[in-house]
């Protein structure tokens, strides 16, 4: 299983308390109970998953299935182990077995049908007779889980939680509780995790109401309102479609804009108020509809026009750029918005919620950043040196699982096309204190990575990564022979990358 912008494969930890979860299956609801797991069991799950994927890399299907079966035994209500089994069977060219495993995953509530459609490990299954029915079932799961999040936040009490005398301590307590719960439920569908986190958000809002009653000073009231806004927007970040907590966010943002119009928080509240309004009419589709995208662009530009220069204005412009890309296929139409965003500083891309997608659009609209860098063999590289051939700037690291998952695709490309036609220039985000240059060389050799690599040992301090404002890795940047950015980020990975390179190198008829 590979990483995409909408799905993160990380097996972390599960709850150490008993919880009941409502999981939608084919439009129906079933109750799945999480059994308490101690630290040793959690570690066993992580180890089994790691060993399973290591076995897949070695072509040892039987060993991989044994490890994934162990994950299933340790977390029987989770669909993830069945998904992993499906990937293993698909890679081993056992389509019927892979489909059967995916059906079991769907029965357990698996609902990320978009990722299933994109996962390169499963691409060979798309022609299977049962594929469309399987996707339909996962869509039904997704719809049922979203419906389960509708309505106001639950009415709960924070009576069992501490009483707080300052906002910083309150925020720290509920942030930790929120993210601990999310991480401990990492092997369950996203909407299920969101439902649990929704309850924690409701507890936080109840605690903030109590705090406000106990601290009537204006500064304390403002701090409590901002904390409430952050609680609802934190919840929004877990959702592909913002449903849970949206009405509460609108009410809180409206209060902040009205009660503290000259505060720094008013700009943040204005941005989130617009995001909430857009979420009311932009719904999850295979693609966002052009009329929805155009309306969202208008709303975010109007918001940006009212905000002072700074992060929140940049956020509003970033949202407008991303939605504009959905309204038109012409990248040149983004240029005015891109120019306006860049006036606030290119490095803001790393602060933006949609920075990964935004960076691709800005690079495509404004072009690549020139550079001079020396690889580990002492050879100097510039954009001019790459021109005349299709080139891939690959920002990656040895410790990055999704980066490692991309390596077979890159190796295949280098074997398919000669270096005078296609070249990869790796830019490592490894740190010398974690991966020495000698270890780095050996690591590459073990995976048949023969292309040039820029390694400074500075990790995220790498100047080239800063110049390209890389927000996360892997972040590939594909250039055509004239040095134009064809694609970047998620648009230049896996099967999509192979197709793009093939198109760029095809001889004109």
TrEMBL record:
Its main location: other. One of its GO terms (cellular component) is cell envelope. It comes from the Bacteria. The keyword Transport does not apply. GO terms for molecular function: antioxidant activity; oxidoreductase activity. InterPro entries: AhpC/TSA, Thioredoxin-like_sf, Thioredoxin_CS, Thioredoxin_domain, Thioredoxin_ResA/DsbE_sf, TPR-like_helical_dom_sf, TPR_rpt. Residues 362-506 form the Thioredoxin domain. It is found in: Cell envelope. TPR repeats lie at residues 45-78. CDD domains: TlpA_like_family. GO terms for biological process: cytochrome complex assembly; response to stress. The keyword Nucleotide-binding does not apply. Keywords: Cytochrome c-type biogenesis, Disulfide bond, Redox-active center, TPR repeat. This is Redoxin domain-containing protein. It comes from Eiseniibacteriota bacterium.
